[in-house]
């Protein structure tokens, strides 16, 4: 694969969108929705009794009267409100189990993905699989980007990679990195069943090694999209390697950046949590990238009939606001490699 100059790549990729400015590389941190939902749910258990709030709704005040966190009960659905004056007293709603069911009920999950999800459910590690709404979001992002060359780091049985491969054009290619041979067998079976095996370049081995070999192979700045969902402690390494592989205007998505909500809990200091916390902090300070995090608490999802959010274009920097997306952390790069 020939190494292309950034300018060529930039024009090739973005002229299709007819943008008058130089687009930066994009990066997206993608937090597990189901994980944060679990946190919100469990926080309801065994807490103080309900009381009537000023709004007239039935609710619970947690911890103390001074607490900024109020759990209210509206109809039958409890939801969490962040009541913070610093942010204009915005009410931030958490995804409850019933709301999450509703969201899932609005996902157009292809039959082949449903079959894969059901087969995976009985396997060890099934909780690692992205949820249908996450997969739908990934696929839509690939479509928005008109991506042709993609990378997935952490395939497992292939749910997210299959979602991506299904929307890639016939000429598209997805490099799928996974170190678990057994899980890969399931993934390959479903790529074949779905008729997308020819689009997927399965790489069995350690993801960092695979990414390094792609760079050595002259494939820097030639990928449109990457999804990272593997060893959390290696996120920084994956990020640095992907920053070289993904071209200007491309998008990198990182899963699990809130890590079941543990990142904001100073009492949690296990190795994984600390490394995700450090990774997020480094990205925040990384001048090569612009970032935008959309928290799970915003709820909602990307509408199937359109973007469900919008692209706001402003000068040199591309800003993406997928305002109905959840658990998402966009990092938009000004790219120093090109
Ligand atoms: C969270 S799962 C991926 C789930 C997948 N995205 C899906 O939707 O089904 C993480 C996967 O990353 C793989 N993994 C972890 N560390 C890895 C590494 N260093 N190299 C390659 N794969 C790795 C694990 O074997 C596991 O299958």
From TrEMBL:
A molecular function (GO) term: O-methyltransferase activity
This protein's record includes keyword Nucleotide-binding: no
A Pfam family assignment: Methyltransf_3
Listed Gene3D superfamilies: Vaccinia Virus protein VP39
UniProt keywords, alphabetically: Methyltransferase, S-adenosyl-L-methionine, Transferase
Coiled coil: none
Protein task: Methylates caffeoyl-CoA to feruloyl-CoA and 5-hydroxyferuloyl-CoA to sinapoyl-CoA. Plays a role in the synthesis of feruloylated polysaccharides. Involved in the reinforcement of the plant cell wall. Also involved in the responding to wounding or pathogen challenge by the increased formation of cell wall-bound ferulic acid polymers.
Protein name: Caffeoyl-coa o-methyltransferase
UniProt source species: Quercus suber (Cork oak)
